[in-house]
């Protein structure tokens, strides 16, 4: 039998749907990739989710986003001078990511 708490939660969810609060959410209609969360130790999942939901991500995740952005900018760049700057920044960012990844691999669990 559903508790009063379950009924209140369900009512609030239905009200939010009616008010359109779930419309236009980021990644709406796309599958959720839970592989990353499943790979995290249970003891830190809640903390990571809290940080992520508030716009904070681990440094290595931000670096991967930066690498993708730099690659996109590099692909669309036609100015040789700007292209050289972007290439240098890309290599520096990749190096920083690799160093962090190596440190995490070597650190005791």
What does this structure look like?
With 109 residues, this protein is an all-alpha fold. It has one domain. Helices cover 70% and strands 0% of the residues. The chain has 5 helices and no strands. Helix 4 packs antiparallel against helix 5. It starts with a helix and ends with a helix. The model has no long low-confidence stretch (mean pLDDT 85).
Task: Please sum up the structure shown.
This protein has 109 residues and is mainly alpha-helical. The protein has five helices and no strands.
Uncertain stretches of 5 or more adjacent residues: none
Task: Note the run of SSEs as H and E.
Answer: HHHHH
Strand content: under 5%
Can you count the beta strands?
0
Q: Gap between N and C termini, in Å?
A: 42 Å
Tell me the Rg in angstroms: 21 Å
How many structural domains? 1
The coarse silhouette is flat
Helices, by number, come to 5
pLDDT average, as an integer?
85
Structural class: mainly alpha
Helix percent band: 55-70%
The description of the largest β-sheet is:
none
